[in-house]
Design brief:
With 71 residues, this protein is mainly α. Helix content is 82%, strand content 0%. The model has no long low-confidence stretch (mean pLDDT 87).
Length: 71
């Protein structure tokens, strides 16, 4: 039965280098996805705020005589 050291020595350095490069690429992609997700969350919050503002404006307009409730 092979020991851990024997198995490690059996893996060619080219394979290890390729694996490291692949993992680096995956890490970069994950970081980009996190940034994109944060941007989408910020946009979502802005849209929710805008919708809440419109709803509040419509509610206030419906309480004010002479101003139509719908825009």
């Amino acid at each position: 039965m092979a020991t851990s050291a024997t198995r490690d020595a059996a893996v060619p350095s080219q394979v290890v280098e390729r694996l490291v490069k692949m993992l680096d690429q995956v890490e970069k992609r994950v970081e980009l996805l996190r940034e994109h997700a944060a941007s989408l969350e910020q946009e979502r919050r802005g849209l929710v705020d805008t919708l809440n503002s419109v709803a509040t404006s419509q509610e206030l307009a419906s309480l004010t005589p002479g101003i139509p409730a719908s825009f």
